[in-house]
Amino acid sequence: MSNTIKGQIALVTGGTKGIGKAIADKLSSAGATVIVTARTEPKENPNGYYFIAADLARPESAEKVAREVLDQFGKIDIIINNAGANLSMGGSFSSLTDEHWDNDFQLNLMAAVRLNKAFLPAMIEQKSGSIINISTYAAIQPLWEMTMTYSAAKAALNAYTKALSFEVGPKGIRVNAVSPGVVKTPLMQDFIEGIAQSSNISVDEAFRSVMNRVGEVPMGRMGESEEIANLVAFLASPEAKYITGANYLIDGGLSPVV
């Protein structure tokens, strides 16, 4: 993948840790100039990526990010909508409030919708671009007690990805989704600890509970962030120039769907 996207400008939202950081590093190693966003700037930025502080769950943030990127770099070639999280930490239909639903949809769906909308005119003008929306295995296998609002928001993101690919494909822009399974990230650790706290059980018990509900991973382990990044970098590159409107599961064989 070395230098396959040399000279391209890539934006990775939520790009300071976990899967987002791994994607930023991989795109950089493939030759791209990388911009990352997060709510707060990391204490260390060893790779020197251009950083924009933004809470993308807030409607005004997308225009701010797009304006700064285009002012500073003059174009955008790759958008990785990675920012997302399971904000409700689970609950039944009766315990989830409108605020829970709105929070998850704002971050996991509308952040990508608004950011793409802000950048697409520039991509359309240059007649090229690649958008990759990071979804989740939970969108096709929701766990009612853990991921109801998150799964619904990401399922909507999948449908949006497909619809947008039809609209902008003739204009030279590819739109795909990547759906990781259970991946070893700081966000996953926070998720497990949140379940442990809310259920008054140990972290180990919470992890076993999640894995029992998710099911057995045939490859026998959680995924690594770098493995997700490898797929994303391929989809962003010219080597995937005939791929659009697809949703790639990368879950160690966890999904029972053929």
Automatic annotation (TrEMBL):
InterPro entries: NAD(P)-bd_dom_sf, SDR, SDR_fam. Coiled coil: none annotated. CDD domains: SDR_c. PANTHER family: 3-OXOACYL-(ACYL-CARRIER-PROTEIN) REDUCTASE (PTHR42879), NADPH-DEPENDENT REDUCTASE BACG (PTHR42879:SF6). Belongs to the short-chain dehydrogenases/reductases (SDR) family. This is Short-chain dehydrogenase. It comes from Chitinophaga parva.
